[in-house]
Amino acid sequence: MNVKPPLTLEQYLGELDKLDVSFDRERVKKAYLFAMKAHEGQLRNSGEEYIVHPISVSLILAELRLDEDTIIAGLLHDVLEDTPYEYDAIANEFGASIAEIVDGVTKIERIKYESKEIQQAENFRKMLLAMSEDLRVILVKLADRLHNMRTLRFKPGPSRIATSDETLEIYVPIAHRLGIFRMKWEMEDLAFRYKEPDKYEELVNKVDMKRREREKEISSMMEDISVQLDEMKIPHTISGRPKNLYSIYKKMTFKNLAFEEIHDILAIRVIVKEFEQCYSVLGLIHSRYKPMPGRFKDYIAMPKPNMYQSLHTTVLSENGQTFEVQIRTEEMHQVAEYGVAAHWKYKAKQRGEQVSGGTDFNWIEQMMEWQRDLENPAEFIDSVKMDLYNTHVYVFTPRGNVIELPDGSTPVDFAYKIHTDIGNNCVGAKVNGRIVPLNYQLKLGDMVEILTSKASQGPSRDWLLFVQSSQARNKIKNFFKKANILENIEKGKEMLEKELRKYNLNLKNAFPDPVMKDLSSKLTIKSLDQLFSSIGYGGISLRQVIPTIREHLIEKDDQLRMIRSPKASRAEGGVVVEGMDDMLVRFAKCCNPIPGDQIIGFITRGSGVTIHRSDCTNFSKKSEEFNRFIDVEWNEAQPIAHTAKIKVIGHDRPGLLGDVTAALSALKISIRGLSAKVNNDQMASLMLDFDVHNLEELDRAMKQLKNIKSIMEVHRL
After folding, report:
1. What is the CATH number of the domain that holds 117?
2. Helices 245-254 and 197-231: crossing angle, nearest 10°?
3. How far apart (Å, rounded) are the C-alpha atoms in residues 699 and 667?
4. Domain identity same for 146 and 22
5. Contact call for residues 270 and 281 (beta carbons, < 8 A)
6. Span 287-308, mean pLDDT?
7. Are residues 28 and 103 in the same domain?
8. Per-residue CA distances from 435 to 420, 428, 439, 440, 599 (Å)
9. Where a domain ends, among 634, 669, 690?
10. Regarding beta strands 322-329 and 266-272, do their DSSP bridges make them parallel or antiparallel, or are they unpaired?
11. Residue 183 pLDDT class (50, 70, 90 cuts)
12. Which of 17, 37, 136, 343 has its CA 20 to 30 A from that of 400?
């Protein structure tokens, strides 16, 4: 292994000089020598001297143009954790401000917890607390994690995956909310590289090929825009930037797209001097290239919570290719790249003033307040990530005040944002003067009015199914938590008993000591009544409880726990399993069998029998495990609706989607899921999930859809 020596003092100071940061040479020199002495003899997994890591962390902080104290704290950030030196030694040598930062970084991961969920939740809590007291603590921690990700190749495989998961779960959302996108993108791509190495390499190659294919076109667009801006006497810089790999991968995964269907892997960025020039550039681009409807966003007029400002528009080139264009000033660009680090104004530390969040970061205190009542670690983590990571929509009160909410929010989210009492007494809503259902998704610029009643009995549990903000979700849960404990216990028992029946389990025997011990560790519950109550008011979900119960009560070896019967009997879901009574049955989502299909069963480990279509491609891959195949057949005496999935392809036109849904409605078919997209050739592709009782119903539905004008193809998935 080729081990590089650490930067010498002269080399380190030279790197700081290149970054054009202001610092006291003697003070930084003193910190370098202190850290070098403290870590003497320590090595990293790479075989390098340990001091390489703190030097690298301090240089990352310098790249963010942070102040001298933060850069020094980067050099010293592991001294309290990994060496005999204590807080007073740092405070005496470098002052209380630096000692507090180093101590804050150390506290984040010093306490270890029995459960991974509790550990992660507590790390989140401590990071939020650190952000509310001194943001520089988190900036040092982010720099520390970034360098650890850069050197992750020296860790063993399982550790790489665990570190990558933690990076995506905790550090990336925080970098996102603080607007430090340069750091966020690099951490995402590094985590992706180690978590999914094969997919990462495949995507690298595809992006490189596509980039080279489109370089000529994007260069032509950039040259055209630049020439026009020169004629308008607008000083500018223009560049093409590839989207980061992980964002492309997420888009492919979440939208179920092939790489070839992703068109905006490159973005054009125009940076100008003055605020007003941004809109002049936008006008020019829209006059020369066709803007795509609904793809313009003005983050200058309405900045993101992390202070990001820019104009975004997506346009079509002359060849019909889509390109995203971002327009911003130089100052906005600094904030876009470095987020809070670029914006942050430190107070005069010589006067002993505390560095805290300030009014620009009230969301940190708000988040701390909203999460305070959450006892369940998993719920806390989900709630914080929702606040950190959500994109936002901006709407108006009747008086014209701007309200910021997570994307997809409803009038109920709006009501709780205004006041808890307004949310609890909400009985209806008007949007832009019209009555709308409470699950209506608010759009940018909507004017929202909440209708309340003193006679209201409080929120509905159903609201938890559609609210988007953790603030609304937590306040609704808190209402039910306080409303009636006995009612919550009974409600929780009822919900749990109903869910357990699906797995042929009963409430009476579901909680032996090992189950309770495991649940107590994972969910911090102390009694069954507390568990039932938490389920009843929504504090704990069934999906957090059922897997643990099943893990303990269903045998983990190859043979399922089952009761043999001399004759076959009807199993759950309208399927007869040969020779087995009360067998747990589930239907494979890869092929979605419905009555009339030829089917076969596959005995899983711990989850009963999975029913596949005989022609399922996934099922054929299991041919080596023939001893786990089992004969099954449909029970025609038990007609049960099953979900079918189909794909509809046709020429896009106004009203196409309405005609498709109307055709199914005429057959009294309930649609469970629908997604649609249109490509550059104006070909529409619709994915439909709907319930049918048998193959005959499905054939009738597909024939009806084929008769619709402009539909070219209908096939089953």
Report:
1. 1.10.3210.10
2. 110
3. 12
4. yes
5. yes
6. 84
7. yes
8. 21, 8, 12, 10, 49
9. 634
10. parallel
11. very high
12. 343
SS3 67: coil
Residue 363 forms part of a structural domain: no
Using alpha carbons, select from 267, 287, 390 the residue that is nearest to residue 327: 267
632: left (phi over 0), alpha (psi -120 to 50) or beta: beta
Sole residue written with tokens 């008011």: 537
Which residue did the predictor score with more confidence, 318 or 164?
164
Distance from C-alpha of 417 to C-alpha of 531, rounded to nearest angstrom: 29
What six digits make up the tokens of 43? Answer: 């090595």
In the predicted model, is pLDDT for residue 116 greater than 70? no
Counted residue by residue, the chain has a size of 717
- Residue 333 to residue 513: CA distance in whole angstroms: 57
Q: Strands 585-587 and 609-613, how do they pair?
A: parallel
For residues 633 and 129, the model is more confident at 633
Same-domain check for residues 319 and 286: yes
Domain with 216 in it:
198-338
Task: List all residues 6 or more positions away from 204 whose beta carbon is below 8 Å from its beta carbon.
Answer: 245
Provide the edge-to-edge strand list for the sheet that holds 575-577: 569-571, 575-577, 632-634
475 lies in the same domain as 585 = no
Token pair for residue 497? 């008993």
Q: What is the 3-state secondary structure (H, E, C) of 201-233?
A: HHHHHHHHHHHHHHHHHHHHHHHHHHHHHHHCC
Give pLDDT tens digits for 96-109. Answer: 999 989 988 887 76
Report the candidate in 434, 440, 431, 387 with the shortest Cα–Cα distance to residue 410: 440
Gap between the Cα atoms of 704 and 305, Å rounded: 48
Residue 215 shares a structural domain with residue 313: yes
Give the closest residue to 620 by CA, choosing from 643, 602, 642. Answer: 602
d(CA 450, CA 430) in angstroms, rounded, equals 6
Please report which helix (H) or strand (E) contains residue 700, including its range: helix 695-706
How large is the greatest C-alpha to C-alpha distance in the chain, in angstroms?
Answer: 90
* Residue 65 neighbours by CB under 8 Å, 6+ apart: 19, 21, 338, 341, 342
Distance of CA 444 to the CA centre of its chain: 21
**149 with 191: CB under 8 angstroms?**
yes
Strand blocks (E) in 319-423: 322-329, 392-396, 402-406
Helical H runs in 502-634?
Answer: 513-523, 528-537, 542-553, 617-620
Indicate which residues carry an active-site annotation: 81-82
In-domain check, residue 372: no
| DSSP-derived secondary structure letter, 398 | T
Q: Final residue of a domain: which of 527, 553, 579?
A: 553
Question: Considering the domain boundaries, does residue 68 fall inside one?
Answer: yes
Closest CA to 588 of 621, 542, 541: 621
By DSSP bridging, strand 569-571 and strand 563-564 are unpaired
- Measured in whole angstroms, the distance separating CA 717 from the mean position of its chain's CA atoms is 28
Compare 396 and 234 and report the one with higher pLDDT. 234
Same domain, 400 and 543: no
Number of domains in the chain: 6
Opening angle at CA 707, ends 703 and 708, nearest 5: 125
- C-beta of residue 401 within 8 angstroms of C-beta of residue 449: no
Residues 616 and 514 in one domain: no
Q: What value does the mean pLDDT take over residues 609-620? A: 75
Please tell me the distance from the alpha carbon of residue 171 to that of residue 109, in angstroms, as a whole number: 13
> How many helices and strands, by DSSP H and E, does the chain display?
29, 24
298/312 Cα distance (integer angstroms): 7
Distance of CA 383 to the CA centre of its chain: 11
Query: DSSP string spanning 277-331?
Result: HHHHHHHHHHHHSEEPTT--EETTTS--TT----EEEEEE-TTS-EEEEEEEEHH
* Domain annotation covers residue 191: no
Which H or E run includes 184?
helix 181-195
- Which CATH number do you get for residue 291? 3.30.460.10
